[in-house]
Design goal:
With 115 residues, the protein is mainly α.
Length: 115
């Protein structure tokens, strides 16, 4: 007696095209874009603000906050913090909105199910 699961039937290229044209797949892409594009724009603006202020507002960026820590250092550290925050937010968003639909689509493809 073997414990190996039977190999799934190979998926045809036509099936992939069918899935790509489905409303479910379109919703998955819309959900992904709904998070990724706005977050990318927001982060780019935030980063550009840091670069522009560093180049053209040196007096402001050189303002001491505490001891030898100035505004430029705080902004620089906030860049790292915002990167981790975005990654954490995306992880939560993907877990609730993207992954369930993607898992369902993948399951349908692997099992050869049709809608």
């Amino acid at each position: 007696m073997t414990t190996d699961a039977p190999a799934p039937a190979p998926t045809t290229p036509e099936r992939y095209v069918e899935v790509q044209r489905s409303d479910e797949f379109a919703g998955l892409r819309k959900a992904l874009r709904g998070f990724v594009f706005p977050m990318t724009v927001a982060f780019f603006i935030w980063y550009a603000l840091y670069v522009i202020l560093s180049a053209y507002a040196r007096g402001f960026m050189d303002t001491k906050v505490v001891g030898h820590i100035n505004v430029a250092l705080v902004f620089g550290l906030l860049q790292f913090l915002s990167t981790f925050l975005i990654a954490w937010l995306y992880s939560r968003y993907a877990g609730s909105k993207i992954d369930p639909t993607a898992d369902k689509i993948r399951g349908e493809l692997e099992n050869g199910d049709k809608k």
